[in-house]
Amino acid sequence: MLSIRTQSLLLISLFALPSTPAVAKKKRGDKAAVQTTKETIRLALEELGESADSEVRMNVFIARMELSGKDVDRAIMKGMAERDADIRDAAVLAGLRSRTKKIKKAAQKVLKALLESAGEDDRLRARSLLEKGIKSTDRAKWMKSASKVGSKDARQAARRNLLASGGDAAWKVIQSGLTEKESEPEHQQALKAFETFRHPAALKWAMGKIYQKTKLGGLARDYLAEVNLGRGTKKFESKLKAAHRKNRGTFDKELPLAYILGVRGHATLVKESLLGTFNPRYTPKPGERLMAWKGMRKVRDTTLLTRTLSQKFKLKFKALLMSIDEQAEVDAAFAWLEEWAKSNNEPEVYKLLIESARSELTKVRIAAMATLGRLGHRKSQASFIAAMREGRPEIRRAAALGIGLLARRGDEKLIGQLLRREPDIDAKLAFVDGLSRIGTPEIINYLQLLIQSPKLELKKRAAKAIADVGGDRAIVLLRLLRNDRDLELRFTVWKALLKTSPKDYIGEFSRSAVNWLTPEQLKILSKNASLPLDILMHLATRGRKEQRAAAVEELKVRGNQAATRLLTVFETSDDEATVKASISALASIRGSKSISTYRAAIQHRFGMVRAEGYNALRQYASKGLLETVLDGLNEKAPLARVQAARAAIALSKKR
What we know:
- The structure is a single chain.
- This protein has 39 helices and two strands.
- By secondary structure, the protein is mostly helical.
- Among the domains are: 55-134, no CATH class; 198-301, no CATH class.
- A two-stranded antiparallel ribbon has the order 1-2.
- The radius of gyration is 36 Å and the shape is flat.
- The model is unreliable at 1-26 (pLDDT under 50).
């Protein structure tokens, strides 16, 4: 048999023959030449298909697909039997899309096995194949099948996929799971899915569980309180109102209905039902008071805030609010007041919050202070400052948080003094955040000593606040931290230095960064600090392995302005992966304008670089270079050889 090189030369001679006036003869000659090309390439691919390198075999699969015709079916069948999962998946996907029944059936068999596999990776891959290769209308059928057979993990994964698909199929999985024992994974899976499930099919189920004092009952009530039924909303709410009227006096039913209607915006109608939970003569069941507080969410009646709920027991609503002891109830009550204050800016609500901030119950007091801080209520600042003199750390933390949230220009000295006196680290952090929120140059006076703090988080936040201010004074302080042990802090400092005074620090940064800069940090610097191209080139040629790859990628992002640097990296780097990446990046920028560079790449001493050179020629060269790429079928490096084969296929199809 002729060697591949001999066949290549023979093929080239066919293309070099002078044209004949007989058109039919020319067409026969062209057809024969194309066939010879394919046979030559097939021979090379047959040998390369036995390579131990999965990347080579993947390219063999792609090359066979690019040959088209019968080669495609052969590629798919061989690919589906591959030990490499990526090649197998590519073949299965092609098989699922094939018009050949035999091929499609074989691909479906492999997909079924993957769906039912005990291996999580197999199932994840199967899900991806389903989405790409199976019509959306048919996917549920596949998932239903997998949810009934296969391994336990496979069944659970299939149910999870059905849930993600939504609609009737998802509801059936949820409904089935909810009937399982609470300890079963199917039940837990269904519970979690139902929390965010929105489908009319669930309405009937939820309506039947409104009055249940179980976890499912709570789930049903929450669903009914939030579900959007579109045009059916009015009719649905009319039924709820009728049920509420009918069950007045039967509190076990009245309260759940009041909660649902209250959340849905009918606060005026159900307010009295909700308040009935707090009647001193009534002993609420577990969870009822929380339900009532949540149901109050849309109440906007200011008379309620000063109302006496019971003359006999001398219980006022204000006293009730300030005596809540359960954290969940505290959270629900103050979430209601915060929402009310935001929507109406109601003075009476603020008055109640200020009084609550002086409550004897710590939970209530902390919640009130946090709410006032988030609302930006400046009049509360004095009470927060007073609270800083208390002995309980949790109260000082809440007050510090409030002061920090209220911080504005002019508060620098006040917060700075509080920061200096406060021993609690969390309170200190809240003050630092407050100064950072102000962001004036004056805050540096109160933060400069903290950059030497033994408390790392305090040190980092102070440095970040100073860096955000910027300016000469900030730079002088930050310079002290440019070699800090904490790499995150060091990065914050260098980002500020390079942004403010790039010319002064570029040289030092180039020498330092090689030792510590991460690829992600390099990406941020390149984007936000306009990192000079020369630094990127320095890291691309002298950095650590992961830095080199990231630097080449950033040069690629810079486009044409970085083309010369990428060429320099190609010509000077001694690292094979870096040189390969530089050719890939250069090709994406320059396209067909750098053919001479790609031709130089296929002569490079590194096999990976030669492979990338052939890859670039495949994309951008003209048919005139077919002779050149065919010569690559004699390559010693398998990856370069298969890329040469792919280039030959592509160029032979060009005109």
